[in-house]
Specification:
This protein has a domain at 44-148. It is elongated, with a radius of gyration of 39 Å. The protein is mostly helical. It has helices spanning 44-60, 62-66, 70-105, 107-151, 163-171. The N and C termini lie far apart (120 Å). Residues 108-135 form a coiled coil. One of its GO terms (cellular component) is mediator complex. Belongs to the Mediator complex subunit 28 family. Keywords: Activator, Coiled coil, Nucleus, Transcription, Transcription regulation.
């Protein structure tokens, strides 16, 4: 596997990769520890790291902070970002090539990975369904509680201080009327 990772380790270049200049390019400051890299031994990872650092260096550079020409600043930052994106694409291409080689050499490994991904996705979706079911049960209970409250007879007056007397007098037979 180490031989298939050519271009990722010192002294190796992936096919078609072009070395990137120093961090930030000419006139750009570098982060500490990046200037002592050997320019001829840059790997794709080193190039990606250097271009990423150059993006930040261009944003925090005193030349850009004190500069007055906004167009020059924008152009420099755009160049650094474009360089980073180009190296990122090369890195992605490298890994896609290695993935393709792996799928040709060991197709069963790709199938195992696909099955594992499908199982993980199924488990994630089952958890999501359980979460939605618990929310559904909660809201069904809330709706049931509200409907039960509306079914209770509300035509009885609220109990007051004379409620006991009113109930007691309601159970008594009506009083006889006096003849006039």
């Amino acid at each position: 596997m180490a031989s298939s990772m050519s271009g990722m380790f010192p002294g190796q270049q992936p096919p078609g990769a072009h070395p990137v200049g120093g961090p930030g390019g000419p006139g750009q400051p570098a982060f500490p520890g990046t200037a002592n890299r050997a320019q001829g031994n840059n790997t794709l990872v080193d190039e990606l790291e250097a271009s990423f650092e150059a993006c930040f260096a261009s944003l925090v550079s005193q030349d850009y902070v004190n500069g007055t020409d906004q167009e020059e600043i924008r152009t420099g930052v755009d160049q650094c970002i474009q360089k980073f994106l180009d190296v990122a694409r090369q890195t992605e291409c490298f890994f896609l090539q290695k993935r393709l080689q792996l799928s040709v050499q060991k197709p069963e490994q790709v199938v195992k990975e696909d099955v594992s991904e499908l199982r993980n996705e199924l488990q994630r979706k089952e958890l999501l369904v359980q979460k939605h079911l618990s929310k559904l049960h909660h809201w069904q209970q809330v709706l049931e509680d509200v409907s039960v409250q509306h079914r209770k007879p509300t035509d009885l007056p609220p109990p007051g201080p004379l409620a006991f007397l009113e109930q007691a007098s309601a159970s008594l037979p009506p009083a006889p009327l006096k003849p006039n």
